[in-house]
Amino acid sequence: MRMKPYLKRSLTVVVVGGLSAVLVAGCSSGTPEASAPERDLGTPVAGEIGDGVLKGVTLTYAASGGIFQDGQTKAAWEPFAEKSGATFLQDAFDSGKLKAMVDSGNVSWDVVNTTQFDTARGCGTLYEEYDYSQIDMSKIPEGTVTDKCMVPNILYGLVVAYNTDAFGDNPPTSAADFFDTKKFPGKRTVSQSTYVDPQTAEFALVAQGKDPSTITTDDIDGAFDMYRSLGSDVIGWTTGAQAQQQLESGEAVMGLVWSGRGYGAAAAGAPIAPMWDDWMIMVDSTGIPKGIKDKQAAFAAVNYYIGAEQQAKMTELTSYGPVNTDAKPKVDKKLGTWLTTEHMATGHAPNVDFWVKNYDVLATAWAGWATGS
Amino acid sequence: MSQISAPSRPRVTSAGKVGSEANQRAPRNWKPFLLLVPAFLIVSLFFLAPLVDVFIRSITDPRLGLQNYVWLFTTETNITVTVRTFGTALLVTVVCVLLAYPYAYLMTIVGDRTRNLLQLFVMLPLWTSILVRTLAWMVLLQDTGPINGFLETAFGIGPLPLIRSTFGVALAMSQVLLPFMVLPLYSAMSKIDKRLLPAASNLGARPITAFFTVYLPLSRPGIFAGSITVFILGLGFYIIPSLLGSSKEIMISALMYQQISVFLMWGQGTALGIFLLAATVLILVVVGRLSKGASMFPGVEK
Amino acid sequence: MLRRVLGAIAILIIAWLVLPTLVIIPMSFNSASSFNFPPKGFSLRWYENFFTDASWLRALGASLQVAIVTMIVATTVGVMASIGLSKVRFRGKALLENFFLTPLIVPGIVIAVGLYSLFLRFNLLGTLPGFVLAHTVVALPLVIINVMASLQGVDPRLEEASASLGAGRLQTFFSITLPLIMPGVTAGALFAFVTSFDEIILSLFIQSPQLQTLPVKIYYSVTQTNDPTVAAVAVIAMFTSVIIMLSAQFASRKRKSVSA
């Protein structure tokens, strides 16, 4: 090695570079931001906002993208921007980025769509508590507000979508059937995405005859072992688009997928139908990141978003269920069969408190499951 | 030679010899140092500083200490995924050597025009984004895709696990990394005296013996150079294993992303990143020592 | 005989390198909204989508802008650094050179995570300077490698002769050195352009609604929808880069034959 005689000089290079690097890395900008003016917006009514009251305000909504975010934008954010005078930007949500933003005090998202577990875990640290007096909560479906930092964003579910060409005459009718490869031969697709859906674990526990509301941490590994026991009959999906493609192409005859993705496959003409006998209720949160500049404007936007008209249109455009009990979306027969709001009686509600408390156990188990170990 | 030369690997051990003869004659002068300032600043501020930031986080998040590294080495999933990541990178390296060797050799025995063409074709894929090529593989390799469709109609077999398998991931990764093997191999082979093989046969060696005793050792620097590049680049792959593999093909980069973006464990995620980086540097140093031995062979300048 | 066998192997390898990607061409004319193979029917609707959707066009524009500026910055800085490295002599030089080249081998996601928190503090997320600086870091090594390779072939006596005839340093550089190393500079600049144009992992982290490059948009599309518009975009992007590369190669070959 010719490096040895260089050692001294080369150390200088590294040290100088390193020092300047540390300087940059260590220097953070914690500029105190001017608090936004409190305007008088009157008593909140879901779906309404005064003309031009938010002129000059810029809000950014971060969500998971695709047809879903486009639909929400068309149904609520665009009309909101037009009426209130605010500018509305759209970005792609990422929890890790949100944490970095909050840590650095430089938050560029005002309203985000995330899971109900995220807002419950991060309530007060990553997410602002709502001032529910600024939002008209009267038409929010019962039981959907699972922590103080959320207003429901959409209602949907983790449902079994099956191929009617394969099982049309004798469809699966329970969570246990999903694991019965003798009666229902063929490949199943299950989430192995980097994102954690505790409902995936709960579904397996329901198939074991357990009640999600009484589960313990000892049950968690057993849930993933259920999926592992399917062996080569289980394939994973890592993105919603992939789940849909696997159902559409027939690679999987059955899948435990987000209801909107099952509908997506059916809408593309694939012979796919939902099983409603055992399904897992999911609610997404609308969260407000901690430390945003103009909370009042963000609350007003959320209040507008949950209006009956906006929610009806959102459902028509995205196929996800509305969070306003007055919303009357005009849906065709096909979409009608995929709306979770019609089947609440057979849905299993998630045990949010349990998962928030035992998130680390879940995270370890999920990381193992999602990496095939 | 065409103008597009290879993005060859950074030569950790041999760099600095470049133009060293010219240096000896150049007068000592501080002005040329100014030319280095912009590059030094950019790389320090936007490459070294982020790495320092990542390192600091790995030992301070959520609190000061080495707990993230303890977690790293005591969690079964991490060990499985690390072993797999190295295994996949090694597999891809072997595939690339086997494919690139005859290709690079052919480049040394054909005319200029054909050689330029061969080089053009091997570089062509570099001009298409990895994302687009991955999308194409997704279409081709899926169970209901054209390859499985053909196998089924022609031979009645299938569907074979082309996608969601190590095979699919290695196929796509090798396709992306092959140019990084062909170019250093060709560069090493082009320096080998072409009269050596005939000379060996004249002395009675069979062509195969001549190849293994004469040619292969002489081409070793090229194999080393290409292998290190391919192996190290292979370690960091993220998109291809995520989109073409199943959970059993996920590599360290994806694990790191999951820790940071889903579990919000910045400390653990950045520790994984630092570990990957340290492994890379270690490999460079070790192989750098080994390949120095290779340069002792006659007729090859390192 | 050997040559035939090798030729056959080479043709198979070329087929494996080039042909699979072409499958997106038929997919881009699919009339169904799906990536199922074979495509059903023939339709131009995905191309129409691309050319009528402002966000796709904006992403293409942003990508071209970032790539061109990155190419200029990385090439200028890289040529300066290469010349500097070839002229200076000090003990840490090998290390300094390696320092410039390391971004090539550090896994993208590691830099991306660090760069994100850095850019967050300095408000560089989703800005043109932010993108250019981030892409320059990964493009710079390719410029330096190519230019250094060309500099090796330059006879230092030519520069000395120029200096002895009274030419200044800059004049010597532009009239003697630069023309001689032009092939390396062109190659480096082209690499810088494509590196930036295709860069995805850093870009995913540093993008914002204000500035989103084409690969970022393609990534979101591939992971969130089965919309074949992305196939049409891919075909357009693929042909754009291949045409740029072929014309650059053609141009430099022509120049070479003129100067020869």
From TrEMBL, chain A:
Keywords: Periplasm, Signal, Transport. The keyword Cell wall biogenesis/degradation does not apply. It is found in: Periplasm. One of its GO terms (biological process) is thiamine transport. GO terms for cellular component: outer membrane-bounded periplasmic space. It comes from Cryobacterium shii. This is Extracellular solute-binding protein. It holds the Pfam family SBP_bac_8. The keyword Signal applies. PROSITE patterns: PROKAR_LIPOPROTEIN (PS51257). Residues 1-25 form the signal peptide. The lineage of its organism: Bacteria, Bacillati, Actinomycetota, Actinomycetes, Micrococcales. One of its GO terms (molecular function) is thiamine pyrophosphate binding.
From TrEMBL, chain B:
Gene3D superfamilies: MetI-like (1.10.3720.10). Residues 82-287 form the ABC transmembrane type-1 domain. It is found in: Cell membrane. InterPro entries: MetI-like, MetI-like_sf. The keyword Transmembrane applies. Residues 1-20 are annotated as: Disordered. One of its GO terms (biological process) is transmembrane transport. Keywords: Cell membrane, Membrane, Transmembrane, Transmembrane helix, Transport. The chain crosses the membrane at residues 33-56, 86-106, 118-142, 162-184, 222-241, 262-287. It is a multi-pass membrane protein. GO terms for cellular component: plasma membrane. PANTHER family: ABC TRANSPORTER PERMEASE PROTEIN, INNER MEMBRANE ABC TRANSPORTER PERMEASE PROTEIN YDCU-RELATED-RELATED. Belongs to the binding-protein-dependent transport system permease family. CysTW subfamily. This is ABC transporter permease. It comes from Cryobacterium shii.
